[in-house]
Amino acid sequence: MEECSSIPDVSATSEDAAVLVLVANLGSTSFKYRLFDMTDERCLARGAVDRIGAEESLCTVEIGDWSDERSLPVSDHGVAVAACLEQLTDPTHGVLKNASDVSAIGFKAVHGGRLSGVFQVNDEVLDAMAEMNAAAPAHNPPYIAAMKLLRERFPNLPLVAAFETDFHRTIPASRQQYAIPRQWADDFHIRKYGFHGASHRFIAVRSGELLGRSDARVISCHLGGSSSLTAIDSGVSVMTTMGMTPQTGLPQNNRVGDFDPFAIPLIIQRTGLTLDEVLSQLASRGGLLGLSDHSGDIRDLEEQAAAGESNSQLALDVFVEEIRRHLGGMLVALGGVDAIVFTGGIGEKGNHIRAAVCKGLQDFGIVIDEDANKVVSGESTFHASDSRVQLWVIPTNEELIVARQSVDVLNLS
Fold it and tell me: Around Cβ 25, how many Cβ atoms within 10 Å?
């Protein structure tokens, strides 16, 4: 991701012109943020609060060359926002005169079910998110709690929910629907939604700029602790790997990915675990962690596989095979591809994974430059001169997308 500006100076900008958007990314015990001046889309600051609810929480901030780290009790996400605003208004290094300088807080929200888009947070938005708690148990509850607290503590500060599902609303119905009883789909909003929407939207925009065309066929590979692929045609999503929940699609760091639900009764019968316990293990002990039985981190797996650990090699092989399986389906859906883009922590840094994914695809016009692939840094290509398909690494910027969406929905520009 892009670094934040070195010397931001909000005081030098007229208050009428400054549009400052704080973008929040929440976990159950964490709060990460970036502050943007949307008049020129500069990132003014970034920071995080970790171990929320613990006796001592760690609050960090980076503003240009200055950084600050403090340990203090942070009981909830509302207190976390107050702590970050205190650092942003530091009299010596801060970028804000006071907290009221912030125009809005934008949330990279996950699942709104019947609501898919960008909305100013109100009771209807919170109710729609709560309806999907069972589908996104690790994501929706902390977002709902934080939004409610912030509405109480900062009643005049607009909050925006930019749902990750929004970018995938253009996917044809034939690729959205499960083969389930019609009433379930209609009454309970059960379908394939897709996630990582902010990241794939950024790749759609940026790849079009880099390729110099608006009609490009692109496969965006967001690979990290959580991974998904999206087929993009002329800037819009037409196919993606995640389905009803973020648990599906590729095997994740510690989440199962695609899995036959009829195996669950057998597991319950053989282990004595409850349904909730089985689902919890599939969501926390599955994926690459489950396959290797010791780590879900690609760096650990590659190190262990190099030392001859067979389960780690199996985890890497399954991950690559699943990427290639979905990549093949997207090649067919798009009728060919102009560029394949790798992004996310693994996509940007995992040259071994990129090489394995692209291996042996010459007949599809995909030819990797092995030497270029090994030294990729920032926005870079790594395709061979005779490759018909361009291969790119493009660092994503999900927070900037959410900031732009917040400005648009609130008419702040």
Answer: 19
Residue 163 CB-half CA count within 13 A = 27
At 119-132, the pLDDT tens digits run 999 999 999 999 99
The enclosing H or E element of 185 equals: helix 182-188
Torsion of CA 37, 60, 348, 290, to 10 degrees: -130
In a shared domain, residues 276 and 149: no
Q: How far is CA 197 from CA 21, 65, 88, 317, 319, in A?
A: 19, 31, 28, 26, 21
pTM of the predicted model as reported, rounded to 2 decimal places? 0.91
Number of residues written out for the chain? 413
CB atoms inside a 10 Å sphere around CB 301: 24
Range of the domain at 263: 212-393
Asked if the structure places residue 261 within a domain, the reply is yes
* CA 236 centroid distance within chain: 17
Query: Do 263 and 344 sit in the same domain of this protein?
Result: yes
Question: How many CB atoms sit inside 10 A of residue 61's CB?
Answer: 25
Tens of pLDDT, residue by residue over 148-195, are 988 988 899 999 999 999 999 999 999 999 999 999 999 999 999 999
pLDDT digits (tens, 9 = 90+) for 69-112: 989 899 887 788 888 888 898 899 899 988 889 999 999 999 99
Q: What's the CA gap between 27 and 33, in Å, rounded?
A: 11
